[in-house]
Amino acid sequence: MKAIKATHLLLASLLLCLGQMTKAAMGAAMPATVASNAMPRAATPVPKEKQGWMAQHDQNVALARKGDIAVLFVGDSITRCWSREGREVWAAHYAQKQAANFGISGDCTEHVLWRLQHGELENSKPKVVVLLIGTNNLTQNDPPADIALAIAAIIEEIRRRSPDTRILLVGVLPRRQEANHHDRESIREINRRLAPLHDGKHVTYLDIGGKLLQPDGSLSKEVTKDFTHLTSRGYELFAEAIDPTLEALLRKP
Questions:
Q1: Which residues of the chain have pLDDT under 70?
Q2: Which of 68, 199, 226, 243 is catalytic?
Q3: Residues 69 and 8 in one domain
Q4: CATH no. for residue 187?
Q5: Residue 77 annotated to the active site
């Protein structure tokens, strides 16, 4: 019961940080939350039931145990594909920075949370974690508030396991070709809730989505191959958008 209460206190505190609760509301909501043992799916850590997924996780754990990672990219297929469509950009920008790619295709927030709790930060204290996650939660109809809360829980997990690591939190990237697609509004809502997590010390938040968009707000095939996953040009724009901030974080003592 103490563990349950601690978990829900953490989640309630994250809700407060995200602007979803006042202090009074948090106090009023805690007894019911703890009693019901309710937790959003997006923030409930679980492994992904997908062929090959556990093998990829095990590879990440083995690499983490070596402890020679300065910059750790964590996320889903958009992160994973730095090794495919983004491989030339990665080689030019990150190969010399002791960077590692812990992206797994299809992952949602709950899968990343489970991975971090099961060895992907073991013996590894990266100077910077570049975190991008959440787009796949939209495909399983998780509410934006739950997705933002889950991302905050991931940040808390990183901070707990590696307190000196700085986190570069990248806002969920735009998906769908049309600027008025309902997914775009959900992404804006997620990112609006993530922005207050920026503290300029442990967490730096960047919304780089605008760098990928056309003047009318649409996505083009030049930067996304399917209006979600990036092309080589998309990864060039991604790197250009995060590199100044990443360099500044790496220079900090």
A1: 1-37
A2: 226
A3: no
A4: 3.40.50.1110
A5: yes
